[in-house]
Amino acid sequence: MVDTMNDKWIHACSVQDVPENGGVCVKVADLQIALFHFKRRGEWYATQNECPHRHQMALSRGMIGSQGDEPKVACPFHKKTFSLKTGECLSGDECAIKTYQVRVDDDQVFLSITDDEL
Amino acid sequence: MVGFKLCEKLVAKSTKSLDLIVFGEEMRPAYDRVHLSEFFNGKSAEELQLAPSSWYADKGIELIIGDPILEIDRKAKSVRSYLGRVAYYDYLILATGSAAFVPPIPGVEKAGVFIYRTIEDLELMQSWAPKAKIGAVIGGGLLGLEAAKAMIDLGVCDTHVIEFAPRLMPRQIDDAGSSLLQGKLESLGLTIHTSKNTQEILGESAISGMQFQDESILPVDMLVISAGIKPRDELARACGLEVGPRGGIVVNQYMQTSDHHILAIGECALYEGMIYGLVAPGYDMAEAAVSTLLGLEKTFQGFDMSTKLKLIGVDVASFGDPFVTGNDAHTIVFEDRNKGIYKRVNISPDGKELLGGILIGDADQYNMLLQTCKNKVVLPPNPEDILLGARGGEHDGGAGVTSLPDEAVICSCEAVSKGDISSHVLEGAATLDDIKKCCKAGTGCGGCVPMVKDIINHTLKAQGIYVRNVICEHFEFSRQELMDLIRLHDLRSYDEVLTVHGQGDGCETCKPLVASILASLWNELILDKGNDTAQDSNDRFLANIQKGGTYSVVPRIPGGEITPDKLIVIGQVAKEFNLYTKITGGQRIDLFGAHLSDLPTIWEQLIAAGFESGHAYGKALRTVKSCVGSTWCRFGLHDSVSFAIQIEERYRGIRAPHKIKGGVSGCIRECAEAQSKDFGIIATEKGWNLHVCGNGGSKPQHALLLASDLDSETCIRYIDRFLMFYIKTADPLTRTATWLNKLEGGMDYLRNVVVNDSLGLGAELETEMQSLVDNYVCEWKAAVENPAFRKRFSHFVNAPEEKDPTVQFDELREQKMAKAWK
Fold it and tell me: Which keywords fit this entry according to its UniProt record (chain A) (predicted)?
């Protein structure tokens, strides 16, 4: 993971705040970020919290899992699924979601968000 | 026939070469005596042969015909034939059969008097018949009637049957059946005399008439005596083997005679005081004898004397114990004199078991009934259905081949089971001919052919439509299989299940499915053990997610009964948290528009007022709707509200493959609409009628009657069994109606399982249900009392007190409503 000048690491929460193999919603200024602790894979992911399908702030409450090797999240409203890696919609829709980088330091979780988003 | 069967089986099963010599008295190799009368329909002696002489040669069997054995020397272990042949044996098998029993009536030696036993007998009859005008048969049993048919076939149209007993076929059928059969046979031209004792056969050298004990005289110019059989035990008797007081060579279950180097099988053998005068038990004896010779395990255990035959175009069958009466059985009789049909079945007093019966005029159900009887298949609640078929628009009754166990012997002649046939079908034998070739089923009496066809078709069909119903890419199992595995390995969390039985990282299909199975099995708190993240959003937050991302709250209101105080609390809570309120279809109150972070506080207040979770968010019992019942209603028969509350409180919180709804109506007016529920209970004068597997929804389906006039306790027991059976076997997200539609055998099968306990699962299902009931706790109470769970009910992890600012409402009729989708 390479820090660039534009990246800002923002503290989200502690590791214990996030349910294992599930997500929470992190408030960053006016942004809602869905943060996932994919314990089974030993990985963390972050995406926008809004599902682009019906514009509901709900992805953080979705179930995560895998399709083949691709980690994904399913929106609780209509079960649209999105890649946690690329944000691409895996249910065949045109929409995609934004993804963010996550860093875990000493039990604390940080999100990388560019300045212009804030 | 039995001797031939022995050769066949011995050659097939023996692993080393054998010196096998067959001696036969008759001039031809073994032939089919069962279908002897077909000789008169033009079937030749060759066609009746079981196998040509070349078959014996091919198998290395020495066949000596037309040369009967005259003497057995047990010391030297040798036999001597009529033509002086001497053969030594290690083992000697007597399959000498039986001869016609000819009663000592003066005049039986006269010309024109025949017996009906061998092809030679038939040839003799054939040459005499053209001279005969009036024929008679002594003996109204099975063979006698066959002989009467033969007479008609030979052109002796005026034929009389003389029976000593008061009815025809006294050993197989009862008075009523016999009288119907008699009518039927008389309409076909036979004259039947019962209770008639022949005293003398009149005539010079040839028969001219018969005189009876009642002094009446019948002019007759051809007579066949068919008054029973006597075992051919002369040889055995002469060499000192033990024989029965009324004839027959005594054998044990290994078919050994009193000399263990000599075996006897077929109609000459006397097993436990009984001569088995049918081919199927004879074949069974042959198999037992082969087994004894080769040191295998099969023994002869006696045999059911059930028979089915076509007598002059009339089906006659009897099975099991056709005569049992009194306190030992209840009898159901169906008689249609118009069509000439008589059916009787004897049912055990508890109505569960078929003991035996008689079919005349229409014996299509014979095989099914015989198997039902032999395998003790539990009867449907209305046992008459097995005779009359399921009526009232329901499809195929539960008595189809599908209800038979794999061990059910379908072809008794060849001892082929249902399982044997289906496995041959699975191996590629797709037609009746294929089956006949590979396991000989249906090649004996042919009575099982319709059932063999059914099994072939059913197996093929099952094979054709059987697509293995795996859950998703993460689990190569059906829901039912996975449930069994989880139970077996005592797994309690989604993660464990995935690690042990799955692959990959799960998905939105298998997660809620496994979570539901875990809940159905253990009924532990669904948010515990990391299972919260495997739950669908509604279960994860114990509320129903609605448009905009808020939740709705439904407290349980069992039976729809609520006190004014509780109503006030609901009103206060709704007001405080600004919730939209609506009465639901299930007689409770739904509070909409609650923010995630408000849910624990809302519930704290509701719980304090005595409410519990209503599980509106779960694939679980929703409500048991009730009408007001006998406490207020002037029509009500029973207290439907109390019963609804009792039932709702029993099954609250139980997770299932889909949501479950119930209803209880206090009378037939059915105000609770119970017949549209997964289980619906309707009061009757005598108790409750239980209907199951109904639903509303996109494809409404009425519930079907499972059982009638139940007391409350039995009703609950049946619901326990029904729900548990559904929970254990249904595909994911399948309502009971759809589950039933897919269930092979349909309602009759379900009724057998639930009411008649045909799978013997009743007690187990009840115990499992009871353990779920005992484990119940209100999950909202558990959630609000546990800080770790409670923490999850916030929108922002890093700002728990803040609500989702994107949530917006509009106003409608003085309440709020969710903003429309963008």
Answer: 2Fe-2S, Heme, Iron, Iron-sulfur, Metal-binding, Nitrate assimilation, Oxidoreductase
